[in-house]
């Protein structure tokens, strides 16, 4: 007797809607395709067949989401006609893969121009940038507070994706351009009515004022809110924005975290610097800080994970986890700390077969602050820092980038809405066969490929904006 077909994401979320996404013209609610995956390495008796049902894979309340999605084509049949997106869920430490339609990203992705998830909210909403290449052009900027010349080689479009209804809404272009994608965040309305706000912090270095450029789905247009900027004159090195405790949090991994409630009529910016001795010099570790540092939420509290060691001899590499107990506090508490020598010496690490190398920091477990995840040799592994033991280890698959470029900007911990996490048939043992066929090459091949495809400036998205003002009048 054949088993029933697996449920789709839209089936699991049939009673969930976000009116802010459903209502605007041009935003179509679409059924998501089944997210069933096969693992070619699995024994034959574990493969789905017409007469044999596969054992259900483990589910989870959260996933590790790859920030660079696949772009479906008409030939691969990954999405039904007219569908905007699908998500192939996978239990951590494997990576969940987002697939988007050519309507969202109409060009073949390259290492310089590609779609990228900027934010993921627990409501099931995702903020995506579609960075498209255009011929280099020069524009004159003549606005009350900004004059100069701007060189453009890219045009960015921004979308709010609804994973529970598989719909995409193209945000209108603001009158004032978005200046830096790493300062753009998404937060769901605290009223729980399905509305949301997208906001970019636009500081002007050397000035005590800044602008919050905000799009409210309830109003349907962009507005500017003037805010006092509390930081001393120093360039930001933004890496990401996330929502927590009804606020947005802008992260500079060299300095600290800025926070504000964009829904307030008169928002106030707060700044939480990193603990004493953890603030880096201006421009120190720029472009690579997210290999060694991470800020995120775990067990309802803000956490700062640090493995960075300044270039000096005699300092043993270690990982430390700091906690901000109260979102209104500026005091960090050291929760756990472990030397990598002790982790490598444990039998649990030896069992992984991984080298004794400093790994790339990936993320912290969003529910268990003892567990921190790392990338090493095409594997994602979790370490209980308190016990100095490896608790999980799996080979990971990403759409991009090659492993030589890996950093935590390319993945994120995403706590799922119940509509997605509760449907066990949505979960896959691995990513789909098409992705397996295109799986990342060996390290030797990846190095060769990276030389052919781009430079370390590619897949950058850190401290660089393709809308930079390059000269002032």
From TrEMBL:
Superkingdom of the organism of origin: Eukaryota
Region (Disordered) residue spans: 36-58
DUF1618 domain: residues covered: 250-373
Bias kind Low complexity: ranges: 40-49
Coiled-coil annotated spans: none
Name recorded for this polypeptide: DUF1618 domain-containing protein
Source organism per UniProt: Oryza glaberrima
